[in-house]
Design goal:
The chain is mainly alpha-helical. Helix content is about 45%, strand content about 10%. The chain has two domains: about 70 residues, no CATH class; about 50 residues, no CATH class. The chain is built from five helices and two strands, in the order ααααββα. Strands 1-2 form a two-stranded antiparallel ribbon. The longest helix is centred in the middle third of the chain and has 17 residues. It is elongated.
Length: about 120
């Protein structure tokens, strides 16, 4: 997601004094996901989102509590992009390969070469 969209969403919950009120659970967890994937410093993310460091800290703590308590349902699906190398072998399967992974997660691979590349990356 583009951070400018998240910034606009957060701005709708800002009061005239600049405090955040009435944030939805979805927006709180969405902000946590952006914070988790941010490659730079938190201070830079705060500037980009128009938040104070104390505000982002509050949002992160609240999001972690929501997830830990189970009040927020999130999907277990996480997309992985696997790039195939030119030297990899290609075997066509009539059906996809289903892998039961780590704690009951199910990952489906349409081709054997994608499964091999995935296993190389996680090892």
């Amino acid at each position: 997601m583009d951070n400018s969209i998240l910034k606009k969403k957060l701005q709708t919950f800002k009061s005239s004094k600049g405090s955040l009120t009435g944030l939805s659970d979805d927006l709180i967890v969405e902000t946590l996901r952006v914070w988790e994937s941010w490659p730079g410093k938190t201070k830079e993310l705060c500037q980009e989102l128009g938040l104070k460091p104390t505000q982002i800290g509050f949002i992160v703590r609240k999001a972690k509590r929501l997830i830990k308590s189970g009040r927020f349902e999130e999907s277990d699906f996480k997309e992985l992009n696997v790039e195939s190398s030119e030297g990899s072998f290609s075997i066509e399967c009539p059906e996809s390969i289903v892998l039961n992974w780590d704690g009951g997660k199910v990952i489906q691979f349409p081709k054997v070469e994608q499964l091999v590349e995935f296993l190389k990356k996680v090892s």
